[in-house]
Amino acid sequence: MDKQVVFEELKKLKERAYVPYSHFKVACIIYLKNGEKIIGVNVENAAYNPTICAERAAVPQLVAQGYNKNDVELVALYTDSDKFGSPCGTCRQTLIEILDPNQKMWIFNKNDFVGEYTIGYFLPEGFTACDLA
Ligand code: THU
């Protein structure tokens, strides 16, 4: 996967974000091994609480389309930030529920590629299904 291509795709996608309140656009692309892409943008709400983050827009689509963690090549996240561009806590919990902790995740901010991480990096010792066993 080419970082510049991914960056361009994220920047194009983030323009679809519905952000009348924060004006902070976020885009998430889950690249699949079969070449398909699962996309999500943040969709805000006047009641604030129903706002959905880009990651939590994308992950349910992955599930609904019949895919699982074994189908995923890369998770890419863009935020309109000058800084790190970190996934929020709720999204970290959603990501680790459905995807592998070792799943590669690329973070981009408004300027550039920030770095390659894993889902588990963002939620060490996270609460998962095995904690219920
Ligand atoms: N947001 C995301 O889409 N993903 C995150 O991980 C962090 C926050 C969105 C929610 C809201 O629409 C805006 O960014 C500002 O918090």
What would you say this structure looks like, in words?
- A 5-stranded mixed beta sheet has the order 2-1-3-4-5, sandwiched between helices.
- It is globular.
- It has one domain: Cytidine Deaminase, domain 2 (3-Layer(aba) Sandwich), CATH 3.40.140.
- A hairpin with a 4-residue loop joins strand 4 and strand 5.
- The relative contact order is 0.17.
- The chain is of the alpha+beta class and 133 residues long.
- Helices cover 28% and strands 23% of the residues.
- The site of tetrahydrodeoxyuridine (THU) has 13 residues, from helix 2.
- Tetrahydrodeoxyuridine binds next to helix 2.
- It comes from Spiroplasma clarkii.
- Its cofactor is Zn(2+).
- This is Cytidine deaminase.
- Its EC number is 3.5.4.5.
In short:
It is an enzyme of class 3 (hydrolase). With 133 residues, this protein is α+β, with helices and mostly antiparallel strands. The protein is 28% helix and 23% strand.
